[in-house]
Specification:
The complex is a heterodimer of chains A (701) and B (567). The two termini of chain A are 38 Å apart. In chain A, strand 2 and strand 3 form a beta hairpin. Chain A is globular. Chain A has 701 residues and is α+β, with helices and mostly antiparallel strands. In chain A, the strands form nine sheets. In chain A, strands 13, 14, 15, 20, 23, 24, 31, 34 and 35 form a nine-stranded mixed sheet that branches. Chain A has a six-stranded mixed sheet with strand order 3-2-1-4-11-12, sandwiched between helices. Chain A has 16 helices and 35 strands. Helices cover 30% and strands 21% of the residues of chain B. In chain B, the strands form four sheets. In chain B, strands 2-1-5-4-3-6-7 form a seven-stranded antiparallel sheet, with helices on both faces. A four-stranded mixed sheet of chain B has the order 8-9-10-11, with helices on one face. In chain B, strand 8 and strand 9 form a beta hairpin. In chain B, helix 1 runs antiparallel to helix 5. Classes of the chains: A alpha+beta (701), B alpha+beta (567). At the A-B interface, helix 3 and helix 12 of A face helix 1, helix 2, helix 5, helix 6 and helix 7 of B.
């Protein structure tokens, strides 16, 4: 069914710029084959690496540039610009009396006991935060008209201070954007080179601090991203690619360069989002309705809930945290992002003994340099990878497919020192490191689950990232999960995820309305408006009308509650009769989270949302070549491996994943090795390869 | 596999301990999401904890505010005194809001629930949360006894074997202004405690344990040992400290003597002012909460909160003093002086570990209680929190408009204007309010508001530091005092309820924090930055910091040096 894309292009191309490598992935649609290339990232001019990677992969596989459909691009440039404070000189324009909302923030310390903590500094210092006289009431009515004379004087100052970008955030502007729009016009009049971001467009939602913070961040990175995307688009065209570039968004959708240039803040998490999209893709292809993606790399582990092939999304995110894993220590950003939790648990996480004599792992990481002790680059503190090596889960001669030798002796003495401090055996300590890091990840997933109202036991785990498949089964045991999916190519799955993303745009309007006083006419008007905008954007992106979908939801709560839950809404025209349907939807979602309904209190909605998307690209997994075969032919020499029920290392079967044919069955305990990772199949588990070369682990009953 | 206290290895202990903390975090998350009170969800005014069968607190959620967290630890004992373990059935949920038993005023409701495993109680879950109204006078400092302050619930079963106590529920509904929200919050607490219980059972099964008591013993023992060793970082000795506050109609002195000995620390509040006739009295439970909290901020901040880590810290206050008032003393606005306990402790600690304290800050969280009738004749009652500046640190500036020692947060203006007939005219940092120092105190803020009603509204202020500004430390200067001023020019009392007429604007000027070390030692470039950003005026730069700026706001180094030498 997927011989070529609907529009006749044979190849799809994805490019992901990461901190170290720029990954390029090429998909041959009729052959259903993917090719992956890696080049070093070029931080000074990121487009260079993209072009280099593009040329190489096209040359390697003899693909003409004009056979490529719209290339899809994901990047961490926005995040990096904010973390490294490399954005433009940016001013903030606010309602008189409120320029400090971005500095005052929540008035809360994000750590109760650390009296020496620092708060993140706003992206615009106070002398670049200027005020204009105007005021709206909560319904959007004008209480004080915009003082245009005063505004002109303020804008003149912006120009004198050679500001490149301006964020405009007026109180209640999400109810009535007139004053913000007028200010934009006045700025353009006076100095057209200043790029303006309006809060009523970037994130038209109630709560002035996160809205200002988001708009300011958008303004801050806009000049940089505009220059970059313009340049990249031009250079890709110069290479002979005919179709326009698309940009990956943090909610797992893709958008045109035009949208990305206006709202660069929506790209903020586009890299990790791609990984979750890959999980969504597998979920759909393999009919796994409930998946938890589990991506464990060198420094962090990320998980995300994926249901019916759709990753769950939230509208809140934090960037540039002062303490990487401390909620509240970053700048709040209100944009749709794939809802992932990230904790400081990776192969490089360092184990130590704390003041209470307990074994702790992470969040401190040895990073890539010096890396774990077994890398032999001078690291002497024990890490998760060192423990995994001692436990026999990793082969010192077959790390990264043999590209790098691991130093077993160095790992042994690093773990040995810790063992001595704890008064434990060396092997027991290695297992402890493995166990504690697994517990940390399982706890994080559990709390995330309760926050989202999900029962983790109902899910299957999809493991990827360099360390994911090593730890997956033991984490699954803690979560009482019985099925694990390990697709091939654990290290490059994210890049594939990019190619599976649909074009999509998010809209939101705030209109506070009680359900028992629902105004269907007003809502229909509001949705008509949003859908028209969505349709126009999709059309401009080349999506045929038949493939457009519009998904509605509302943020609802019992009147008087402080926070909302997202409730799906019926499509089509709403009428007085829709109230009961919406209420039922609210009660279903509420019950799922809190086990019971609230008291007899009216229900209200705050925000009305719409996601307009194009069709998901058709892209099918390719069945593996070769006939079904037993695992015997894939056996490698056995080696001693540790599992807790043995209380020691015993000889254990080792398999070469590349030589396993479809349908092969492996009873645990076993270790299955591939180039980028290793799958650990503990006692009590069985593994089999499916027709698409996935390894599926199943817990025995 | 119910191991004894001694044979558990550090790995299994870490895994189990971690899980218990994760379980109470889940409990707190469930409560925050389901609560009907803005201050619980938007401000985080709650706590959640797990107790062993003897009522000893083993784990506590990471979220919450010290006043609730630490005071809940002692509350369990009161529940178990009234209802011994044998009297519980699955599905029981006990309730109280007795100020002397838990966190010091009637608005804080605590739910205490047994968790049953194989037919017997294995643990208890408790949660405390601030309810928007609990009858009586709206929250304030002006009651003359606790009976005036609201509806009091002794320890009772709110639910018995899963069945709600309808009489109690009806009584509560009849005695509070916002019955739906109040009852809704109580049910949210029930649900949260049930979430905790369900997760604990799952874990016991998985770990093959039939009791958490033996492991609890180890947790308490380890925590106590670690806390004692942290306290040993403070040189042994006796250290006096004090702090002055405005109080209601006369100044209040909190005096403390810290005795540090043998890895223990005792705070004796002898010399503290007698109890007040107004609702600013602080029950010992609540005073102790801030006492223990402040010590932990200074040493041992990484040690988990549980009964073991509290053991080395003890407190006494003479009967009848403002930190140990006799029932039925009014206690509604107990948080103000409760927060000042932190400042007294830091003052004493500054004589022992000067590098681990803060200069005085705004200290007392400002509570604004508003009530009235809107233009559609609907009554409203609402409370919001705001913060001044924290004291400077020995290594860095104080934080502007940030709560300390309280752990709660403010509410967005857009949210408040949506639920209240009120217009905020400004909410901005107060220039020159941070106490000058090599490290500057955090800035206070100014908040202006105006009713949008036909009739006047009631404003109950619960503020302090109008007459006793935050003191600097080690040569740092004091922060600016607070004030409450009408647009008519009238200056108001810090704690007396008054009527605010429509179209009159009131401004809350929150105090700044004190500075650390002499301001003449502050880097002139940083002073220049402060002037550029209008944290500090040019005049103050010259007067306090001895820094002379040119008209283009560059430092006039020659004049500055001369000025600083001449000082």
């Amino acid at each position: 069914m997927s011989e070529t894309a609907a529009n006749g292009f044979r190849y799809r191309l994805g490019v992901d710029i990461g901190g170290t490598f720029t990954d390029v992935v090429l998909l041959d649609l009729p052959e259903r084959k993917t090719y992956v290339g890696k080049v070093l990232t070029t931080p000074e001019s990121p487009a260079d690496a993209v072009i280099q990677g593009l040329r190489r992969i096209l040359a390697d596989h003899g693909v003409p540039p004009d056979a490529i459909d719209s290339p899809i691009h994901g990047t961490t440039l926005v995040t990096n610009a904010i973390i490294e404070r490399k954005g433009a000189k940016t001013a903030l324009l606010t309602t008189k009396g409120f320029r400090d909302s971005v500095e005052i923030g929540t008035e809360k310390r994000y750590d109760l006991f650390d009296i020496f903590l620092e708060k993140p500094e706003p992206l615009a210092p106070r002398h670049l935060r200027l005020e204009v006289a105007e005021r709206l009431d909560p319904e959007g009515n004008v209480l004080i008209p915009l003082d245009e004379e005063g505004a002109r004087r303020v804008i003149e100052r912006l120009d004198e201070m050679s500001v490149r970008a301006v964020a405009v955030t007026l109180l209640h502007s999400f109810m009535n954007p007139a004053h913000e729009r007028r200010l934009e016009a006045l700025i353009r009049e006076r100095s057209p080179r200043i790029l303006t971001s309006l809060s009523s467009e970037v994130t038209p939602e109630i709560r002035e601090y996160p809205r200002s913070s988001t708009t300011l961040a958008n303004a801050y990175v806009r000049p940089l991203m505009r220059a970059y995307l313009d340049l990249l688009g031009r250079r890709i065209r110069e290479e002979g690619v005919r179709k326009d570039l698309y940009i990956m968004l943090s909610n797992g959708g893709v958008a045109t360069v035009e949208t990305a240039e206006a709202f660069p803040i929506r790209l903020i998490e586009s890299g990790p989002a791609a990984g979750a999209m890959a999980a969504a893709y597998y979920g759909k292809q393999l009919n796994l309705r409930r998946l938890i993606s589990f991506d464990m790399g060198g420094t962090t582990a990320k998980t995300c809930f994926v249901e019916d092939g759709r990753p769950s999304t939230v509208t809140e995110f934090e960037v540039a945290r002062v303490y990487q894993f401390k909620k509240g220590s970053g700048l709040p950003v209100k944009v749709p992002v794939i809802d992932m939790i990230e904790i400081g648990a990776g192969g490089g996480s360092i184990a130590h003994r704390d003041a209470l004599g307990l074994l702790k792992v992470g969040p401190e990481s040895s990073g890539a340099d010096p890396g774990p002790a077994c890398y032999g680059r001078g690291g002497d503190r024990p890490t998760v990878t060192d423990a995994d090596l001692l436990l026999g889960y990793l082969d010192p001669k077959f790390f990264l497919g043999g590209a790098m030798d691991l130093d077993l002796g160095a790992a042994d003495s690093a773990v040995g020192r810790l063992a001595k401090a704890l008064g434990l055996e060396r092997l027991q300590t290695a297992w402890g490191i493995h166990e504690v890091v697994n517990e940390n990840m399982a706890n994080a997933a559990r709390i995330h689950g309760i926050e989202k109202g999900k029962d983790v036991q109902q899910y299957a785990l999809m493991a990827f990232g360099g360390a994911g498949p090593i730890h997956a089964a033991h984490v699954a045991e803690k979560l009482r999960i019985g099925t694990i999916l390990c697709p091939p190519g654990a290290g490059t799955l994210s890049a594939l995820g990019m190619l599976t993303a649909p074009i999509s745009f998010d809209f939101v309007r705030t209109k506070i309305m009680r359900l028992d006083a629902l105004d269907p006419q007003a809502l229909n008007a509001l949705y008509q408006e949003m859908e028209a905008e969505g349709r126009a954007l999709l059309e401009r992106s080349g999506v045929p009308a038949g493939e457009m979908t519009f998904r509605r939801s509302a943020d609802m709560r019992y009147e008087g509650q402080g926070y909302e839950i997202q409730v799906p809404l019926p499509a089509g025209r709403l009428s007085a009769g829709s109230v009961e349907e919406i209420r039922a939807g609210f009660e279903r979602s509420y019950k799922a989270i809190y086990q019971r309904l609230g008291p007899n209190v009216p229900v209200e909605a705050l925000n009305w949302r719409l996601v307009a998307s194009g069709g998901t690209p058709r892209l099918d997994l390719r069945p593996a070549d070769g006939a079904a075969a037993g695992p015997e032919g894939a056996k490698k020499p056995p080696r001693p491996v540790y599992f807790p029920i043995w209380e020691e290392r015993r000889e254990c079967d080792i398999y070469d994943r590349d030589r396993l044919g479809p349908g092969a069955r492996i009873p645990g305990p076993a270790v299955v090795e591939e180039k980028e990772s290793t799958v650990v199949v503990p006692p009590g588990w069985d593994a089999r390869t499916d027709e698409f070369s996935n390894l599926v682990l199943q817990r025995r009953r | 596999m119910s191991g004894t206290a001694t044979d558990i290895d550090p790995i299994r202990l870490e895994v189990i301990w971690n899980r218990l903390i994760s379980i109470v975090d889940e409990q707190a998350a469930a409560l925050m999401n389901a609560s009907f009170t803005t201050v619980v969800r938007e401000a985080g005014d709650l706590s959640a904890g797990l107790f062993d069968t003897q009522g000893r607190m083993l784990a506590q959620a990471a979220t919450g505010t010290p006043g609730h967290i630490n005071s809940m630890a002692t509350a369990a004992k009161h529940f178990l005194e009234r209802f011994p373990p044998a009297s519980y059935r699955p599905g029981d949920h006990l309730i109280t809001n007795d100020p002397w038993m838990v966190s010091g005023h009637l608005n804080d409701v605590t739910l205490f629930s047994p968790c049953f495993y194989r037919g017997r109680p294995v643990a208890f879950f408790a949660s405390t949360c601030h309810t928007c109204d609990f009858g009586g006078r709206p929250l304030g400092a002006e009651a003359r006894d606790v009976y005036e302050e609201g509806f009091s619930i002794p320890v009772l079963k709110f639910m018995e074997a899963g069945e709600p106590n309808r009489i109690l529920e009806t009584l509560i509904r009849a005695n509070v202004r916002m019955p739906d929200e109040v009852i809704g919050d109580i049910y949210a607490q029930v649900a949260a405690n049930e979430v905790g219980g369900a997760k604990l059972l799952q874990f016991l099964e998985e770990a093959g344990l039939d009791s958490i008591d033996p492991i609890g013993e180890v947790i308490l023992e380890r925590s106590e040992t670690a806390m004692r060793s942290a306290v040993r970082d403070i040189p042994e000795g006796v250290y006096p400290g004090e702090v002055m506050a405005d109080g209601f109609d006369e100044a209040i002195r909190l005096a403390v003597t810290l005795a540090v000995r043998d890895g223990g620390i005792h705070a004796d509040f002898k010399g503290t002012s007698p109890q007040s006739a107004w609702g600013i009295n602080v029950v010992p439970n609540y005073a102790y909460a801030y006492c223990a909290y402040t010590v932990k901020c200074s040493v041992g901040s990484q040690i988990p909160n549980n009964e073991g880590s509290f053991r080395p810290i003890t407190m006494s206050a003479p009967q009848g003093c403002i930190l140990n008032p006799k029932h039925p003393a009014p206690v509604g606005a107990r948080h103000i002086l409760g927060h000042f306990v932190a400042a007294a402790i830091f003052d004493a600690l500054s004589k022992a570990v000067p590098g681990r304290v803060l200069a005085e800050g705004a200290t007392g969280l400002w509570l604004t209680q508003l009530a009235g009738t809107d233009r559609k004749d609907k009554t409203f009652s609402y409370i919001f929190f705001s913060s001044g500046g924290t004291g400077a640190r020995p290594t860095s500036d104080g934080l502007s408009a940030t709560a300390f020692p309280s752990g709660v947060q403010g509410t967005p203006v857009e949210i408040m204007e949506n639920v209240l007939p009120l217009l905020f005219t400004r909410k901005e940092l107060r220039r020159d309010s941070g106490g000058p120092g090599r490290f500057r105190g955090g800035l206070g803020q100014s908040i202006g508001l105006k009713p949008r009603t036909a009739a006047p509204i009631h404003h109950s202020p619960m503020y302090d530091r109008f007459y006793h500004p935050a003191q600097g430390a080690a040569g740092g200067l004091e922060g600016e005092a607070g004030s409450l001023v009408l647009s008519t020019g009238e200056r108001l009392h810090s704690k007396k309820k008054y009527k605010l007429p429509p179209d009159v604007e009131v401004t809350l000027n929150l105090p700044g924090g004190g500075g650390f070390y002499s301001p003449l030692e502050r880097d002139p470039e940083r002073v220049r930055g402060d002037v550029l950003n209008e944290y500090v005026s040019r005049e103050a730069a010259e007067r306090f910091y001895g820094v002379i700026l040119n008209d283009d706001l560059t430092v006039d180094w020659g004049a500055t040096e001369k000025r600083r030498k001449g000082n």
